[in-house]
Every structure is written in C-alpha cells, then in structure tokens.
Amino acid sequence: MTDGLAIGSALVAPFLVVLRESIEAALIIGIMWAYLEKTNNKESQKYLAYGAASAIALSLVLGGGIVIILGELAGFWEKMFEGIASISATFILSYVIIWMSKHARELKGELETKIDFAITEQSAQSLVFLAFVAVAREGLETVLLLAPLLSIDLGQTIVGSILAIVVALGLSLAAKKQIYALDISRFFKYTSLILIVFAAGLFGYGLHEMVEAAEIIGIENPLFEKAWDINPESKEHPLHENGAIGVWFKSLVGYDGNPEWIRVIGYLGYWAWAVRFYRKTFSVY
C-alpha cells in the first residue's frame, strides 16, 4: 500500500505544475482566438494554431534533451544538476508570480493590441510569432520546473504531466465560451498560491541536493548538519517522510523528516518572503 501511495504522491507535483502552466497557455491562446472571432477575423485563427503547435514541439524537444542529460549524469554532477535546476526553477516561479501580479489586469488588453497590430499589418507571421511566444514561454517554464522532478521520478513525472495536459485541454474546451470573460486577476491570485507552495518545497530540495554535492567532494559546514530527525525507524510508519502521510507532504510542500539546517533556513526564508508578498500584492483583489 505504501508503494501505491508513493506513486500517487509522485504524480501530484508535476500534475499541478503542468496543469497550471497548460491552463495559462490555453487561457492566453483562448483570449486571442476569441478576439479574432469577435472581430470577424476567423480566417486568421489558424495562424495561432501554427504558432502554438511550434512552441509545443520546441518544449518537447527541450524536455527530451533534459531527460537524455539526466541519464548521463551521476554522483557529484547529478546532485549539482538537480540542485541548480531546483533553485533556478524556484527563482523562475517567483519571477512568474511577481510578473503576473503586476500585469494580469492588463494582459487581455495587451494581447488585443498586439493582435490589432498584426491584423492591420496583414501579417500572418506576426500572429504565428505572437502565439509561439505566448506558448513557448509557458512551455520553457514548464520544462525548467519539471527538470528536478524528472530526476526524482521520471516515469511518474511524465504520467502526471500527460494527465495534467489532458485535464487542461478538457477544461479549456468546456470553458471555451467563457474564457474571454474570465477574471484573469482572480485566476492568477489562486493559482499563484499553488505555485508558492510548490516553489518553497522545490527550494528546500535544491539546497538539500547542493549539500549532498558538497559532501561528495569533501566540503563540510555546520549548516550541513541535521537540524532534527523525527523520522520513525520504520518507513511503514505514516509520519515517516516515505510513509502514508509523510510522502504526500513531501511531494506537496517539500516535507523532510531529517532536514539540514541550511534547508530549514532556506525553506522558512522563502515562506517569509512569499507570505509578505502574497498578502501585500493580492489583498487588493
């Protein structure tokens, strides 16, 4: 039963990340698609599809490249890659949250302005490029965010990602007529909270991997010592980080039963910033 729970929890993080990014990409394309329909430019909608498809293809190629690289790494370099990828992904997530908090309200207007310009110029290439950039940005973010998860559990990360894409497509098609009228600011308010929870855990994991990389080459530091060890001896115990309860907290919020001091400090430090930022930024919605 524990193995089944571990597998289920391994699906959660990639599922939530890819679902959010997929819905965001679908939302942007949906707004542009609906605007072309609203302005009687249905014949130009195909160019949005071309741009979106090209961006998805690029993202898949980059994702495949990361999987190949991971398969070639071991020891110190594997730990370094996982640590750098996790910490980098945390900063990217944080940047996305900050950027969206500032631009979500104007996003729809900015997209419409760009589409109007492309239509005025009668440039199919402009529409293709506009859709490509919109989806490629989400695709690249997703690839970077999934990199550390791929190193943890390749199979479950891929399965979780595929499930998320299927759900996102289903939701997008079901809400096709409502996408244009969606309250984008409110959407990003709540999905940003999901990203903050994930980013905090990812940051802690990245620091842990960097510590292991340092220890492999003989670097020691008091901050690398264990802050505590509350893991029960048996992995079957529900509160063990690999137990029935602990494994879910490990996947969702980065729980660790025996973390290093640097991981604890980094984790709490990120949450201190995130809570302050979230309350200050999104309290106006």
Question: Could you characterize the architecture of this molecule?
Answer:
By secondary structure, this protein is an all-alpha fold. The chain contains eight helices and no strands. It has helices at residues 2-38, 45-72, 75-120, 124-152, 154-174, 184-216, 246-253, 261-282. Helix 1 (2-38) runs antiparallel to helix 4 (124-152), helix 3 packs antiparallel against helix 6 and helix 4 (124-152) runs antiparallel to helix 5. The radius of gyration is 21 Å and the shape is elongated. The termini are far apart. Residues 1-7 have low confidence and may be disordered.
Which descriptors apply to this entry?
0% strand; mainly alpha; 8 helices; 285 residues; 79% helix; disordered N terminus
Rg over CA atoms, rounded to whole Å, is 21 Å
DSSP helix fraction:
over 70%
The CA-CA distance between the termini, in Å, is 43 Å
Outline the biggest β-sheet.
none
Q: Specify the number of helices.
A: 8
Structural class assignment? mainly alpha
Shape: elongated
Low-confidence stretches: 1-7
Total beta strand runs: 0
Task: Set out the fold topology.
Layout lengths: L1 H37 L6 H28 L2 H46 L3 H29 L1 H21 L9 H33 L29 H8 L7 H22 L3
